[in-house]
Batch of 2 targets.
Target 1
Amino acid sequence: QFAIEEYRPIKVVCVGAGFCGILAAIRFARKVPNIELTVYEKENGIGGTWFVNKYIHLQPSVQSSMNRDSHCDIPSHSVGHFPDGSGFYASGPEILAYLKRMVEKYKLMRQIKLQHELTQASWDEATGK
């Protein structure tokens, strides 16, 4: 009833607007034709762990930039997304700022629903939905 090149529409829901939700939105849009993706985030901002957690170890270091206690454990140069002046390890605020830049760059806010919590999902075998 249809040509092989005709992609059927597909709806995808992603829970959480942290790294995984943001990267999924970017990748799915590029790789999956005819997708309708919605990212549901229960908080009032994007960033997941980097948005929610405000504990002291996510604050920028006032001491040496080599002070691992105030930064994440991934060297900032290894991912190549953080400013050269950030020190060896990216700080929590730098990581959150990076995620916000990705959402802006790829215009993802139209797919992200803030302050929405998914409480239940079910599959209807008969309709395939």
Target 2
Amino acid sequence: AFFANKVEHESRHCNSKGLQRQGSSSFDRVYTANQNCGHAYPTFLAVLWCAGLLCSQAPAAFAGLMYLFVRQKYFVGYLGERTQSTPGYLFGKRIILFLFLMSVAGILNYYLVYFFGSDLEIHIKTITSAISPLLLIP
């Protein structure tokens, strides 16, 4: 809602009707940042749900909240100079990678249980819980 509100505010500020692109530099930045965040959201939701369901809920929820804050930093950084958005973008990629690896670990554990009867769920949950605070390091 914050991103859409910024796009609407900038659109009104540029004296345009609707959400038409008028070539304004500030409107283009806001609109592009909003589109970038919207395009990344389905991927985020998919890996968040998979990590939470297949691996561990608490580290997945923590990483999800961190991702939302990082996306906010990316958006606000994109409103300034485009180079200010780079740290938020890279941090977001790292969180998505963490969630993806959690999903893969959960899938591998399922197949270990299915084929070999060996359950590593407790070890995987311990490792992900220990690694998740490291996401705070920029």
